[in-house]
Amino acid sequence: MIPVVTPEEMGAVDAAAPEPTEVLVGRAGAATARAALDLLGGAYGRRVVVVAGKGNNGADGRAAADRLRRRGVRLEVLDAADLPDHLPAADLLVDAAYGTGFRGDWTPPAAPEGAAVLAVDVPSGVDGLTGEAHGRPWAADRTVTFAALKPGLLLGDGPSLAGTVEVADIGLDVSGARAHVVEGADVARWLPDRPRDAHKWRAACWVVAGSPGMTGAAHLAAAGAQRAGAGYVRLSTPGLAEDPGAPTEVVGVELPAEGWADRVLDGVDRIVAVAVGPGLGTGDAAAAGVRALVGAADRPPVVVDGDGLTALADDVDGDLTTARARPGHGPATGPTVVLTPHDGEMARLGGEPGAPDRLAAVRDLAARRGAVVLSKGSPTVVADPDGRVVLVTAGDARLATAGTGDVLTGALAALLAQGLAPFEAAAAAAHLHGRAGALAWRRGLVAGDVAAHLPAALTELPED
Length: 464
Ligand SMILES: NC(=O)C1=CN([C@@H]2O[C@H](COP(=O)(O)OP(=O)(O)OC[C@H]3O[C@@H](n4cnc5c(N)ncnc54)[C@H](OP(=O)(O)O)[C@@H]3O)[C@@H](O)[C@H]2O)[C@@H](O)CC1
Ligand SMILES: [K+]
Hints:
Elements: E1 2-4, H1 7-16, H2 21-40, E2 47-52, H3 56-70, E3 74-79, E4 92-96, E5 116-120, E6 142-146, H4 151-154, H5 158-162, E7 164-168, E8 179-181, H6 184-190, E9 204-208, H7 216-227, E10 232-236, E11 251-252, H8 260-266, E12 273-276, H9 284-295, E13 302-304, H10 307-311, E14 337-339, H11 343-348, H12 358-369, E15 372-375, E16 380-383, E17 389-392, H13 404-417, H14 422-439, H15 447-452, H16 454-459
Parallel strand pairs: 2-3, 2-4, 4-5, 5-6, 6-7, 8-17, 9-10, 9-12, 10-11, 12-13, 13-14, 14-15
Antiparallel strand pairs: 1-8, 15-16, 16-17
The structure holds ligand NPW and potassium ion.
The site of potassium ion has 12 residues, from β4 and β5.
EC number: 4.2.1.136
InterPro entries: Carbohydrate_kinase_pred_CS (IPR017953), CARKD (IPR000631), Nnr (IPR030677), Ribokinase-like (IPR029056), YjeF_N_dom (IPR004443), YjeF_N_dom_sf (IPR036652)
GO molecular function, one term: NAD(P)HX epimerase activity
């Protein structure tokens, strides 16, 4: 996992560093110079303009300039506070105006025509916490950031202005980071090896979703569970007797339209995880069923999505979502519920979509609900009530198509059923789901394709 540290947290890391700032600035300058040389494809005779501010970000840029000059690069260092209307011609512009200490607005003259842009730590003008661009920052081809990623490189305008982001180690200890970006190697580590005596019940899950006449979401959730490695998928749509459209290998079990939660709880003996909510409808019976199931003391771990989340809207303090899973089912401690809201559902749950500090907003909701919260978006953010946060950058705009959320819900249930703890299951599901979308077609993608590509996403994981 790649650590993500807010500007404020970075200040504390910096204050705790045993080395003086000049030493850190020297290393930051060296890393910047290396990235510059890489972008330039050489040194001698290349023209580089460094725009440097008066803080440490500017100091990093000046330190890089010294190194580059010694390599024969033709350098001009310009003061960010006193820029000409037109910047001199250059092969590379190094943006070291402002870093995490930026405030206000930054509307510099245009970058020299044809010059590559290298941002130091964060593109100047981009808020290191929120990713919001203030003014008209230069769009970088590459950003070299120090010690850890900053949220502002991953959120808001950050990703489109930062270009390719590289984290340079400058000797700071970021082991206390509370947020991380998930990588394939993490997911590989979390997934259990398939045991030799694997039998279908080992990773059995039950999808309770859909409503009579509206079975698409249920089918997609079931397919997501199948393709993310569930050994057995049971599917029930309350009030629906026959479901000829369900995926072939799914085992249909009939549930009454009302009072179905008791029937589920009676039948979960060998079921390791339950998914509830997609397409269930917002009628009273559906909502009562969700509440009874989620609030039951003896249920397996459960992932709640879609209409299931609406049913939990009033459970503000998490009385239902903190119900303990029964012994032997799910983790002995920690949360046993995963909530997977998009922004609208997040607001319904009392969360704050669009909050400037998105990581804190998701973390707060998880703490209040006593549940893992997976906030869908770009990136997807997963928080545990204990304060841990991961960002999943694997997905892209292609996933913003109807039904992909249902696939994610099913995949998440399958990972819970394979024994992952809720936080890791949510992070892994979001990663695999994002990769499945990326591995599928560039255009014309439908949700079923995402499910169909989950095995490819699992297969491409590095060997643990
Ligand atoms: N963390 C670490 O451990 C390490 C961090 N390092 C580096 O330090 C960077 C953070 O440095 P920093 O704190 O000095 O802040 P920085 O971004 O240079 O800006 C603050 C200065 O700019 C000014 N200023 C701001 N906005 C302005 C505006 N719109 N227009 C005009 N002026 C404006 C502001 O002025 P003031 O508010 O004081 O008036 C202040 O003087 C970080 O991003 C990384 O690159 C590494 O060197 C090594 C280890
Ligand atoms: K910068």
